[in-house]
Amino acid sequence: MLKQGLKEAGLAEHEVRACTSSCLDVCWVGPTIAVLPDGYFYGRVQKADLPELISALGRGERVERLVLSDQDFQEPREVRTAPPKLT
After folding, report:
1. 41, containing H or E segment
2. What is the β-pairing status of strands 40-42 and 33-35?
3. pLDDT digits over 44-86, tens only?
4. N or C: which end of the chain has fewer CB within 10 A?
5. Which long-range contacts (C-beta less than 8 Å, at least 24 apart) are formed by 28-36?
6. Higher pLDDT, 52 or 13
7. Are 45 and 30 in contact, with CB atoms under 8 Å apart?
8. Contact at 8 Å (CB) between 14 and 7?
């Protein structure tokens, strides 16, 4: 959906590249987008946020409500102490 939205907005060819990545090490904040080279991350991203994100990228702006803070990068205690799940 993100790639398609960027293409439809005319951003995919020269302005913005969306690609998959390996783990960004912040799984506790849900779906995450790294914005590089600007150096910030969006977290807790939902499908409904994509039009706003795409529009902001086109204007060279950020959607502040989704930008992760330094505190978001600290692994929550309950994640650190959770026993491993056996599958």
Report:
1. strand 40-42
2. antiparallel
3. 999 999 999 999 999 999 999 999 999 999 988 777 766 667 7
4. C
5. 28/75, 28/76, 28/79, 29/68, 29/72, 32/68, 33/2, 35/62
6. 52
7. yes
8. no
Q: Cis bond leading into 83, ω under 30°?
A: no
Give 2-79's CATH code, choosing from 3.40.30.10, 2.40.10.10, 3.40.50.10490, 3.30.230.10.
Answer: 3.40.30.10
Q: Residue 9 corresponds to which amino acid?
A: A
Q: How far apart are CA 17 and CA 30, in angstroms?
A: 21
| Rg, Å, the chain Cα set | 15
Query: d(Cα 8, Cα 73) in Å, to the nearest integer?
Result: 32
Nearest Cα to Cα of residue 29 among 85, 82, 84, 79: 79
